[in-house]
Amino acid sequence: DTRHNILLYLEGVNKTFDGFKAIDDFNLYIKEGELRCIIGPNGAGKTTMMDIITGKTRPDSGQVWLGSRLNLLTMTEAQIANAGVGRKFQKPTVIGCLSVWHNLELAMAGPRSVWATFRAKLTGEQKDKLASILTLIQLHDHANIAAGNLSHGQKQWLEIGMLLMQNPKLLLVDEPVAGMTHQEMDRTAELLIGLAGKHSVVVVEHDMDFVRSIDSQVTVMHQGHVLAEGTMSKIQQHPQVIDVYLGG
Ligand code: ADP
């Protein structure tokens, strides 16, 4: 079975907007626990591809599966999220006036009212889980700080932590290091590498130094299609990639 160990499976996916082919016979296979970077120039179709995975956009044709059982094209956005697909957008959406801890607590509860969440006491197990994620995102010393007072990088990590509270199988991460310092970028690479194994992680990123530091398999998108796939050192030598992207 060629789909053995594949968590996310996209095959022959097409999407046209007003006659313009944004996604063109696109294939992507992400293994269980794999960390994959996706790069490509503006307009390559990266956002549309993520929107198709999360159910925000429906393709015109093709296959999109989570594992061998879940046909994502038959599911709503909410169902896809509940099935274990978490997405981190570029702009953080943490609640600034709440503490780091309370942001994580809210994220664990999912879409419930704030009051219902804080009225219910956490079980010991839930507290342990929250504490371990706090350590993972390196905010254990900041649990009681209002999220609004965190640095830009810390807010991004908190948001990744909030996604982790939902036990996602697949994490889609959009430009995680935009606006970060070099030190924050290094920590983010460490964090994402640490998540692989337990979760499949797909990172869309423009920063080449960051992608190089992650050192995972890289998919290069161009005009809605896969132009090249391989390690950064391999695709850097791909003439077409140099033409359309790295050399441009
Ligand atoms: P990327 O994220 O790689 O920059 P996008 O997926 O945002 O690329 O866009 C791919 C192409 O599809 C672009 O040319 C964009 O203008 C077009 N596009 C994306 N969404 C829409 C839409 N809702 N309506 C019309 N065109 C769209």
TrEMBL record:
InterPro entries named among the record's database cross-references:
ABC_AA/LPS_Transport, ABC_transporter-like_ATP-bd, ABC_transptr_urea_ATP-bd_UrtD, BCA_ABC_TP_C, P-loop_NTPase
Query: One Gene Ontology cellular component annotation?
Result: plasma membrane
Question: CDD domains recorded for this chain?
Answer: ABC_Mj1267_LivG_branched (cd03219)
Alphabetized Gene3D superfamilies for the sequence: P-loop containing nucleotide triphosphate hydrolases (3.40.50.300)
Pfam families per the UniProt record, alphabetical: ABC_tran (PF00005), BCA_ABC_TP_C (PF12399)
UniProt keyword annotations, A-Z: ATP-binding, Nucleotide-binding, Transport
Domain ABC transporter, chain residue ranges per copy: 8-248
MF (Gene Ontology): ATP binding; ATP hydrolysis activity
Does the keyword section mention ATP-binding?
Answer: yes
Q: What is this protein called?
A: Urea ABC transporter ATP-binding protein UrtD
Species assigned in the record = Photobacterium kishitanii
